[in-house]
Amino acid sequence: NAGVTQTPKFRVLKTGQSMTLLCAQDMNHEYMYWYRQDPGMGLRLIHYSVGEGTTAKGEVPDGYNVSRLKKQNFLLGLESAAPSQTSVYFCASSRRDRDATNEKLFFGSGTQLSVL
Amino acid sequence: DAKTTQPTSMDCAEGRAANLPCNHSTISGNEYVYWYRQIHSQGPQYIIHGLKNNETNEMASLIITEDRKSSTLILPHATLRDTAVYYCIVRVASWWRDDKIIFGKGTRLHILP
Lengths: 116, 113
Description:
The structure holds 2 protein chains of 2 kinds.
Chain A (H helix, E strand, L loop, with lengths): L3 E4 L2 E4 L5 E7 L5 E7 L5 E9 L2 E4 L7 E3 L5 E6 L8 E8 L11 E2 L3 E5 L1
Parallel strand pairs in A: 2-11
Antiparallel strand pairs in A: 1-3, 3-8, 4-5, 4-9, 5-6, 7-8, 9-10, 9-11
Chain B lengths: L8 E5 L4 E6 L7 E8 L6 E6 L4 E2 L4 E4 L5 E6 L8 E9 L14 E6 L1
Parallel strand pairs in B: 1-9
Antiparallel strand pairs in B: 2-7, 3-4, 3-8, 5-6, 6-7, 8-9
C-alpha cells in the first residue's frame, strides 16, 4: 500500500513564483490535512478538508490555497511564494468513523520547500 | 492554539521506562487523546489513543487520569530508536464536527545510552 504520497519531495522556488504541492492517498479517507513544520517547531495546520469538495482554514492559512476536487487528492497552492514559506510541508489523511473511535492520522513523508 | 501542553524535552536512560506527560485540562467528554511521534524529519507516526480507559498496544501504554485532564504515554523499555518528538493531541468523537486538528510543539525525548 502506498498510503499517503506527497509530490514533489524537494523544491526550490524564487520569490514570487507559484507552485502546487500534491497529496494523494489510496485509503479512501474522508479527511485530509496540510501542515507546515519550521525548524525546531511543531506542526502547524494550514488547511484541511472533511470531504470531497470541502476545505477549511487552519491556524496559518494566509498565502496558501487548497482544493479537494477528488476524494483521493488534496492540493496545496502557493500563488506568490515568499521566503517565510520556506518550510517542510506534511500532508495527512484519516478515515471517518461513525463514532470516531479509530481515526488515526496517516502522514506523508513531507516536501522540503525553499523560497529564495 | 493547541488544547494540550507538554514538557519541551525529556531524557530517559536506555532500557528504562519513558513516561511522557500531557495536560489537557479543557478536554470534553467526547474527545479522544491521541499520541504520535516524529522521528528525525519523517512524517509523524501514530502510537496509541484512548478515551477514558487505559490502553496498551505493542508500542506503548496510555494512562488517562480519572478526571481525564491529563495522560501519560509509557514506553516500557526505551531504546535509542525511540528518540523522537512526541505529540499529544485531542480529537472530537462526533460524526458532525469541525475537524481542525491542532498539534502543539510536542516533547523531544532523548534516550541516553
